[in-house]
Design goal:
Elements (H helix, E strand, L loop, with lengths): L2 H39 L15 H11 L10 H17 L9 E4 L2 E4 L8 H22 L3 H32 L4 H6 L4 E2 L3 E2 L2 H4 L1 H14 L11 H4 L9 H26 L12 H27 L7 H29 L4
Length: about 350
């Protein structure tokens, strides 16, 4: 078999694995986790009828979404109205192409890196795709020809612009420390320990940047307490008020895909990615263990997103803007100066 064909089959296999896990395992179970987590926090049962512990409830919801009446508002801009759900879901899934979910596995005489596309500017690719989500929300709000949806779209555009600045500056500190925009290099730079005690994870040397990135991720994914574009209490459902059936399900899936992608990026940039100090057995076992470590770390942050959603109240919009511009932006600049100093001095070597 030619090397080109082998490389193509390898890429296809990784795409099927990553997106199969995302669409077939993660997204349906995240809906269950969200509902059961909310029930646990609020001291109520949650879904508990369809299957053991309500595990099959998400499977029952899928045909329900297909069978619901699909309504398009009479005065909507139909082309943009139909485009918005796709523009929301597809970039959210495409982000997974550059996130390394394991070290490498040697199969059939080849070292197969556990990332679909190990590109040199992986972080730029990831940030570019996540930025496309704003177009989906703004288009959905505008094309629906609904005042509630329009307000949600306008809120989202201001919110994402505000917090992308802080998020980007927090991420720049990571790339200064690793001297690379390649996400696999970022993970590799965090392996090992400092003084044989502290993991070389960026969260320990850049705690301010880590906190800024995590909180900004809540704003970027429109999760509580930053869900102003949806804001059910005042905007009904915000930008997707006029969507139903499978088009609404696509927005729903995009939210959870963004949640998983944000959690994976937090792990990759600040918590050592697939690595864990003292845990690096050789061979296939090491590769599988690195995937398990990455999955456990990502799962923790997914649960953090759920926990915060059902614990904290929603910000007022003026509080949201003040936090982004008056607190996060100056703090991210302070973090950038600190990282520049310690990298120049070589304190973390």
């Amino acid at each position: 078999m030619s090397p080109t064909l082998v490389a193509a089959l390898e890429a296809v296999g990784k795409i099927v694995f990553v997106w199969g896990v995302a669409m077939g395992v993660l997204l349906p179970n995240l809906v269950w986790l969200e509902r059961r987590g909310a029930a646990f926090i609020q001291d109520r049962p949650g879904p508990n009828r369809v299957g053991p512990f309500g595990l099959f409830q998400s499977l029952a919801d899928v045909p329900k979404m297909f069978l619901k009446e699909d309504i398009t508002p009479a005065y909507a801009d139909k082309s943009l109205y139909l485009l918005a759900p796709w523009l929301s879901l597809v970039p959210a899934l495409a982000v997974f192409a550059v996130i390394p979910f394991g070290s490498s596995i040697r199969l059939f005489g080849r070292d197969i890196p556990m990332v679909i596309a190990d590109v040199n500017v992986g972080v730029l690719y990831a940030f570019a795709l996540t930025s496309l989500g704003i177009y989906a929300i703004v288009l959905a709000g505008w094309a629906s020809n609904s005042k509630y949806s329009l307000l949600g779209g306008i809120r989202s555009s201001a919110q994402i612009i505000s917090y992308e600045l802080a998020m980007g500056l927090a991420a720049i500190g990571v790339f200064l420390a690793s001297s690379s925009l390649r996400l696999m290099s970022v993970v590799e730079a965090q392996q090992g320990t400092w003084l044989h005690l502290v993991p070389r994870w960026n969260c320990f040397v850049q705690p301010l940047g880590c906190v800024l990135f995590i909180v900004s991720a809540f704003a970027e994914t429109n999760r509580l307490p930053f869900d102003l574009p949806e804001a059910e209490a005042e905007l009904v459902a915000g930008y997707h008020t006029e969507y139903s059936a499978f088009k609404f399900a696509m927005f729903f899936m995009a939210e959870y895909a963004n949640l998983v992608a944000a959690s994976a990026m937090i792990v990759t940039l600040f918590f050592g990615g697939w690595g864990f100090p003292g845990v690096h057995p050789p061979g296939v076992l090491g590769g599988l263990l690195s995937i398990a470590v990455f999955a456990l770390k990502t799962g923790f942050f997914i649960w953090l997103f759920v926990w915060v959603r059902w614990t904290l109240p929603r910000f007022r919009y003026d509080q949201l803007m003040d936090l982004g511009w008056k607190v996060f932006l100056p703090a991210s600049l302070v973090n950038l100066v600190w990282v520049s100093v310690y990298v120049t001095a070589g304190w973390w070597r």
